[in-house]
Amino acid sequence: MEKPINNRAWLLVAPVFLIVAFSAILPIMTVVNYSVQDTFGNNQFFWNGLGWFQELLDPSTELGGRFFAALWRNLAFSAIILAIEVPLGILVALSMPREGWKVAATLVVMALPLLIPWNVVGTIWQVFARADIGLLGYGLNWLGIDYNYTGDTLSAWITIVVMDVWHWTSLVALLCYAGLKSIPDAYYQAARIDGASRWAIFTTIQLPKMKRVLLIAVLLRFMDSFMIYTEPFVLTGGGPGNATTFLSIDLVKLALGQFDLGKAAAMSLVYNLIVLAVCWVFYTVMTNTGSERADRGEPA
Amino acid sequence: MASITLDHLAHAYRPDPRGPQDYQLKEINHVWRQGGAYALLGPSGCGKTTLLNIISGLVTPTTGRILFDGRDVTHLPTEARNIAQVFQFPVVYDTMTVRENLAFPLKNRHVPRADIVRRVEEIASRLDLSAVLDRKAQNLTADAKQKISLGRGLVRADVAAILFDEPLTVIDPHLKWQLRSSLKELHRALDLTMIYVTHDQTEALTFADTVVVMHDGSVVQTGSPEELFLRPAHTFVGHFIGSPGMNVLPAEVRGRTAYIEGIAIALPCAYPALPAGARIELGVRPEFAQLARAGSGLPVKVRRIDDLGRTRIARIEIAGHAAAATVPEGLSIEGDAAGLKLDPAQIHIYADGALVAGEGGV
Amino acid sequence: MNQSSRASTFIMVLYLIFLLLPIYWLVNMSLKTNFEINTTVSLWPRDLTFEHYIKIFTDASWYTGYINSLTYVVLNTIISISLALPAAYAFSRYTFVGDKHLFFWLLSNRMAPPAVFALPFFNLYSAIGLFDTPWAVALAHCLFNVPLAVWILEGFMSGVPREIDETAAIDGYSFPRFFVKIFMPLIASGIGVAAFFCFMFSWVELLLARTLTATNAKPIAVTMTRTVSAAGMDWGLLAAAGVLTIIPGALVIWFVRNYIAKGFALGRV
């Protein structure tokens, strides 16, 4: 059924448009304004054209080197957590209890990490993983494993990755679980009648039906890990050295720490553009998945 | 190829059934002949889908056994039963082509490649699916998808019976008829046992040789469509089959006469063995009750006359009880007084809903 | 119980232990004295104490943090839902100029990194005099919560047949009355799900909340980051404050537990 055309619907959308525009467009304009100026302090600004952008995108400069290092670090981080959280989330969703009080209890425990303020997530892992007072840190060292996330880069990365897995796998699992719940029983019955193995049921029924929610899960996890700030900030503060300084951490250091407004603004814009581009790709893919039933003409 | 025997079968979804009210399916003994076309007919919630799922092995019955050609399969899983099932909503594997869908059950059973190819081609041509074999199953219409589900059952050479669970629910009306006749054709060509669950009497009566009518968890009658029409074994069957359904009127029977609120009706035979204290009813189908001019036959009141095209049905009242009757061609009634003539051979007497056999008939 | 469901139970139990272990450790620490924390690593408090909790509930600089946080979270949830309701209705019922682009643009804001907005928001809310008030944080969080609420509500509204709107119009309901009396009750669970997610994302966010407040509206999360590192690490107090921030979330989950799966089922979060 086609939706009727009615441009007065804009009246209903207007409040949302205004408030989001107020929160998004005005600040972005400020950022654009800063990004093309330089300052020597005292609120005196002068035109700098695309200077900051050239510096930012040139890895040989100090700013550019710093930006690309943070960008690669962030991409590596996103890739690692996606590679862990997506399969693990699917596995957990497949392992959900079928019925009864166990479902409610499991759902509540699973959702718990999602509702903890992000800095508290950092705090939890800080007290859990510290080598002197934390169960994990103390336990690993007791087992003879040299582990100290405040001093050792590898330990720090492992801790941050495990923390993110702890924090967000449930989101992937809940999305997948909802996708699985929407599969009618008849599919499973038909598969049993057709003699399908457990693996065949997974690849031919469950995975295709989860495709849409999985796309959303990957999108959300990619975006949120790409803008991760609070948890590593609390846990490691970006260290040791700059080993866990991700884009957002670097940006906040630049903007609110050093008040290097021009550089920070240029970085913000490039950062935001990357996010928008990825977002658009996902949105297009997702919209196509929705409509492909209709227009996928298969070769005869 | 098998006959299927239900032996003292009963099922309750509760783990600890106490009384008969806890049973969704009350004790059933029945034999489905090899090669028969059966319909399992009844309103929603009468237990017919439960019965179907017990036969296919998706549900294990609480008590009783189920035998395929004498072999006890009660506790065998679905995949070991050689059963195929077509569900209410089309089930196809979205990501596969039609060809892959049809080959799927054979691939899972490790049938040699060459045999798979041959079987798939054969079944596809039987089902008119050859043209779309390499299309994605997801993009086809509902009736094509139902054919694919059916095809996945038919490709298996060893299949003992095909079960249909209201398979035409989502099919367009004009295609229903077509699909049903291709089912009948397949049945004749392949000599398969088919069990077809439906709540639609037209579907049941046109598809099946034998109709099993279920009501409230039990089988109330098994018979050919003709038997169900002429000799309903239960007032429920009388109501449920035929449109409008059978007239069922409270009556008293003495000798060869029934009395409805004092109005005498001659019966073809005597009913000396009527259980005392039972609710006695007289049943006659509208097709065997003809309206006549006032003064002839039983006195009735006409409420309205519906013109159904080929026939006219009168909604009448006999001594305050609503009933329906056929209006003979050419008869016109003025006012609301009329007469009613019953075909004595088609009058049945029911005690507590069940048909009672008469004695000394003509 | 067959083999595969035993494996499932095993995986599930392992996963739940993984989730609960760090939280258990936090609770454990919050009930220990700082002396015990710093000297031994023990699986349960040897010297059980509630001193950290007592401190939080009696010291105004601590408990006002909770009040501030809850204030802007509730404000934000109310603003987001009430603005998103009519907009979601428009998206679910009508085609209008630019609707697809608008929808994408809204959603893209859900994905925008808060770090990008920290500084400009600071300037903006200072300029309009809302800096260090709950309103600043509540409005700033609208950036990602309003699009989210629109998205979730649109999904639920599309599930309501349009004939209902038409029937109500024929019965002589005015649009606002129809919307409040008939339509909103129909999507009540959707409103609940959307409110849940608005609450959640506003409650867990720290970067903007920290940037836009100084002393008067300081949220609890910030209180934790600022006071603790002052005179050495007061681990016990930090842990107790952490435990107390988990409780509102846990309560909310408990109330909506039956809707969680439904909300996720739309594939929209």
TrEMBL record, chain A:
Superkingdom classification of source: Bacteria
Grouped into one coarse class, the protein's main location is: membrane
- Start and end residues of each ABC transmembrane type-1 domain: 71-282
InterPro entries cross-referenced by the UniProt entry: MetI-like, MetI-like_sf, Sugar_ABC_transporter
Q: Which UniProt keywords apply?
A: Membrane, Transmembrane, Transmembrane helix, Transport
Q: Which family does it belong to?
A: Belongs to the binding-protein-dependent transport system permease family.
In Swiss-Prot or TrEMBL terms, this protein is called Glycerol transport system permease protein
Q: Which organism is it from?
A: Ancylobacter amanitiformis
Automatic annotation (TrEMBL), chain B:
Ligase listed as a keyword: no
The protein here is known as: Glycerol transport system ATP-binding protein
Q: Which keywords appear in this protein's UniProt record, sorted alphabetically?
A: ATP-binding, Cell membrane, Membrane, Nucleotide-binding, Transport
Q: Which residues form the signal peptide?
A: none
Q: Which family does it belong to?
A: Belongs to the ABC transporter superfamily.
Which residue numbers delimit the ABC transporter domain? Answer: 4-241
Q: Select a single GO molecular function from the record's annotations and give it.
A: ATP binding
InterPro entries (UniProt xref): AAA+_ATPase, ABC_transporter-like_ATP-bd, ABC_transpr_FbpC, ABC_transpr_MalK/UgpC-like, Mo/tungstate-bd_C_term_dom, NA-bd_OB-fold, OB_MalK-like, P-loop_NTPase
Automatic annotation (TrEMBL), chain C:
Q: Which Pfam families does the protein's record reference?
A: BPD_transp_1 (PF00528)
Species this protein is from: Ancylobacter amanitiformis
According to the record, the signal peptide region is none
PROSITE patterns tied to this protein: ABC_TM1 (PS50928)
Show the PANTHER family listed in the entry.
ABC TRANSPORTER PERMEASE PROTEIN, MALTOSE TRANSPORT SYSTEM PERMEASE-RELATED
Enumerate the subcellular locations listed in this protein's record, separating them with semicolons. Cell membrane
| UniProt keywords, alphabetically | Cell membrane, Membrane, Transmembrane, Transmembrane helix, Transport
Q: Where are the transmembrane segments?
A: 7-27, 70-91, 103-122, 134-153, 182-204, 235-256
Q: In its UniProt entry, what is this protein called? A: Glycerol transport system permease protein
> CDD domains recorded for this chain?
TM_PBP2
Q: What is its main location?
A: membrane
Q: Which residues form the ABC transmembrane type-1 domain?
A: 66-256
Membrane topology is: Multi-pass membrane protein
The family database entries (InterPro entries) matched by this protein are listed as: BP-dep_ABC_trans_perm, MetI-like, MetI-like_sf
What family classification does the UniProt entry report for this protein?
Answer: Belongs to the binding-protein-dependent transport system permease family.
